[in-house]
UniProtKB/TrEMBL annotation:
Domain Histone deacetylase positions: 7-139
Gene3D superfamilies membership: Histone deacetylase domain
The protein, known as: Deacetylase
Length: 167
């Protein structure tokens, strides 16, 4: 929200917050409720911090990995009707990973997350939409060690680089 406000103050006409962390962004949704220039797209795999979706804060809680990428595509297509945006702020959470012991979803593999990152950065690139992102989520546990988490975050950096975006 702070970055969104800074972007609006700096002259962006509107901001898209794209939240693909495992958990819902209820705090973000409540903070943007009175700011019509900010849209929030939230695709989560865990209902923690869920909120009632609204016109500006779209929420989908995915319970099947086979629906994950399809739902992200659908939500991005839906938000297109509100653009163009001046900036996309992307929460590139890795905690949807099946290897994440805290609310990861079985079937969301490294390959699925790599495709998600490609999809997001290409979506922004084709719209000439500037994007700022944070490497987020991912919890160390029995199936995910520090090098494994770093490898997941590198998916974001690689996809950004392929799309011509500098980290």
């Amino acid at each position: 929200m702070l970055a969104s406000n800074a972007a609006l103050t700096a002259g962006a006409e509107s901001v898209l917050i794209l939240d693909l962390d495992a958990h819902c962004g209820g705090g973000t949704a409540s903070l943007i409720a009175k700011e019509p220039r900010i849209r929030h797209v939230d695709v989560s795999v865990c209902s923690y911090d869920s909120y009632p979706a609204s016109e500006r804060a779209r929420l989908a809680v995915v319970t099947s990995a086979t629906d994950y990428l399809q739902e992200i595509r659908r939500m991005l297509g839906e938000v297109d009707r509100y653009g163009p945006f001046g900036l996309c702020l992307y929460n590139a959470g890795m905690d949807p990973s099946e290897d994440c012991s805290t609310d990861g979803l079985a079937g969301i593999t490294r390959e699925v997350l790599a495709e998600r990152e490609r999809l997001v950065f290409e979506w922004c690139a084709t719209r000439h939409l500037p994007i700022a992102f944070v490497l987020a989520g991912g919890y160390i546990g029995p199936q995910l060690n520090i090098p494994g988490l770093v490898a997941l975050h590198r998916l974001t950096l690689s996809a950004a680089s392929r799309a011509g975006i500098s980290p």
